[in-house]
Amino acid sequence: MIACGIRQPYNTAYMQSGDEPFMNRHPSSRKRAYLLSGLLGALLIVFNVSTYTLYERAKVHLDGELGERLQSIASILGRSVEVAARDSLSNAAADPVLYSLLHTAKTENLLTNILVLTPDGRTVVDIAGISNPGEYNPFIDLDYSAVALARSGFPASTSLYKSGDVFMKSAYAPLHDSREDVAGILGIEAGADYFVVLKSLRGAITLVDAASIAVILLLGLLFYRQSISLDRAHDAVVQSENLAAMGRMVAGIAHEIRNPLSIIKTSAERIQKQYGIEDEIFTYISEEVDELNRILTGYLNFARSEPHDVQRHSLQKILVRCLLLIESDAELKQISFAHSLPEEELFVECDDKRMQQAFLNILLNAVQAVEAGGRIELTAHRKGGAASVTVRDNGCGMSEKTLREIFKPFYTTKKHGSGLGLSIVKNIVDAHGGSVGVASTPGAGTAVTVSMPLCASETKPAINMKEPS
To answer: How do strand 336-340 and strand 375-383 relate by DSSP bridges?
Structure first.
């Protein structure tokens, strides 16, 4: 927390302990996200291309089946027509027997039209009545390739064509005379009813596509969340191992350094007293030894964040002790304090010394953050099954970048800070099952909120608190 500024709403930025944007801390997660997005995109493309290919193959297969069926009908019917209408073909005229035969074939085979043509394209019979007997039939030009093959003696079918809203297909077969020469052409036309089936198939494919996309996206999301959870777990393990290693190292270093420091301070005081030397240098020696001891204590406190003596304690009593301990520091800077504690005592399971250290660190940070004449507020209240304690100051506040770093060990914006204050707070609160949040507005101040799980509630009379100046 940094000094200066005036009070404004605390609404610009908020950081919960451990809330640093995960993608910023893990380039590997970002790469995995890109890789996963690419893989999902490729799967979706492959799946959609596969279903589209399946649809097109089904369409081509059914089209071929319909063409072969119509060619077979045309060839079989052609042989019947050859017997019934040899004379009619040469005269380009049809007799009643031929009409009866063709009407029966149309009904039995679900055809839409049957044509009997002369080789030069004149109509002999047109069941649908599109052209009259003796007229040039328009289908000759529309189905030129298939008609040309039939003239050559080979049955053939046309490509699909659309008549109104219906897809149609035609087939042509040669009609032979007694000398086996091509004496006419038989044409039949039918609707492509399989398009109804294809429409249903396309709807089913679309539904399967949508369901598959949803499943793929869900699996991708689950994989991504699992990946993030694994990275966070890995981070937690690494951090825990680092802190444990640092704790052992710090404890050893502190033990080795404190003994010579104690000897230096004692020797300086003895020399000054023994020889009656009035020199400010001895005061400097003593002060600097105390400063080194303070720094060592900070490192040891950081290394020993686990609670050791966990009992049921009143949170109000812990907070009042903290307020009394910083009273003299606040008086030196003429800082005004305001606090609001509930009448109902809030009981928490904690190591009261460790919790006192955590709240004391927060309050000392606030004292250091505000300028002379500044203001600090401490509030506590029940929030569901937890106690919420907030310390607000009207200092300079912090930028979003600083907020992302404040819980990291050794990060500080203070000229003489160790960067362990909020790290110690976080470790202590986390060890007690709580959480720490920091909200700050540059130029307006900072609010630190600690949430602690409550014991079974008990209502007691308000405690008698000394009002800090």
So the answer is: parallel
